[in-house]
Amino acid sequence: MNNPLGILVMNSQLKKKFLAATIITAGMTPMLAYAQADGGHTGHASESSKATNTPVTAPGMNHGSMNMPGMDHGSMDMSGMNHGSMGMPGMNHGAEQAPAQGHDAMKAPTKQAETSKGSSAMSGMTHGQPSSSAPASVHNMDAMDHGDMQMQGGSAPPDARDPNAYSDGYVRNAGKYALPPSEKLVMSDMHNFGSVSFDRLEYVRARGEEWAAYEGEAWYGSTYNRAVIKAEGEVASGKLQESKTQLLWRHAVSTFWDTELGVRFDHGQGAPNREWLAFGFKGLAPYWFEVDATAYVGPSGRTALGLKAEYDILLTQKLYIQPSVEMNFYGKDDERWGIGSGLTDGTAGLRLKYEVTRQFVPYIGVEWSSKFGKTADYARAAGDSKQETRFVAGLSFRF
């Protein structure tokens, strides 16, 4: 330890350590002074940043440990502060202790506090509102008197303009400006039209026998009144075997329904002709069922009722299936015609149709026909079957 060199070495090491500590102390002194000055003015930072909208983020702050007894917040004016943009996920407000902070003394505009009951008392502060451009007040229409509002309607006022004042007394289809009869406007329901249509013109095969059947009508008239001829029958071996022809007056009583009034003539091979008065209706029932119902009254107390219905089931815009049902009732027996009283016969058909055009519709199908009651007894006595299945192929057309 008496070595002078060792003492010099030790003294050199101490000098180095002392010099390093001095340099560090000199460098830290300005930083500490700046931090102390900045911390003393933190509470007044909001006043100097009224014009800035930069979000304040303080994730590491713990307000629970802050104690600011000398700070008076009552004199602060925070009307321009926007708390909605502040993001402070790490702040703990539950443990704040600020007994001397006079938040109750904060002064906000009294008018807004009165008009918006559910809003904050600090008018300029928006606490998490969706938009910072929201109106500062809520419209209150409780005091608005709607009784003074005049709605349109009622009688015209005495000084209202006469709608005919500018026509100089002229009316339509009269006076010197009226058109001649040849040039007058005629609506479509004032015209008379005509049409011929056949719903069935078909070839029929049943029990090894063949024949042709037809059913159609022709009419002429206007939209509301028409003269109509209905015809249906069967032709076999070049001869008319049976036919029913009706001459009717058809009148439209509603949008989808027509009434019919007229006469019917029946013709049959080996049977006397029959005449009937006819009254019925024809039209389109709900769900697009086409219905035709007619009652008949003839001489000697004869009565009859005919019912028909059909429906179109679309498979495509042009191809469709048409089921149909027909039933006939008679009030008296007519042995010459092979007809008994009550329900005499019924037919159910199913036809597959294809619309080449609206006017030209070929089809194929099948029908099931049956006779009932005394009519079936007459058929068996004549050697005919009371039930049969018919295969048909034909054409529907109109022009």
UniProtKB/TrEMBL annotation:
Polar residues bias (residue ranges): 45-56, 112-135
Region (Disordered): 37-59, 95-160
GO molecular function: copper ion binding
Regions crossing the membrane: none
Family annotation (InterPro entries): Cu-R_B_prcur (IPR007939)
Pfam families xrefs: CopB (PF05275)
GO biological process: intracellular copper ion homeostasis
Cellular compartments per GO CC: cell outer membrane
Name of the protein in its database record: Copper resistance protein B
Species assigned in the record: Castellaniella ginsengisoli
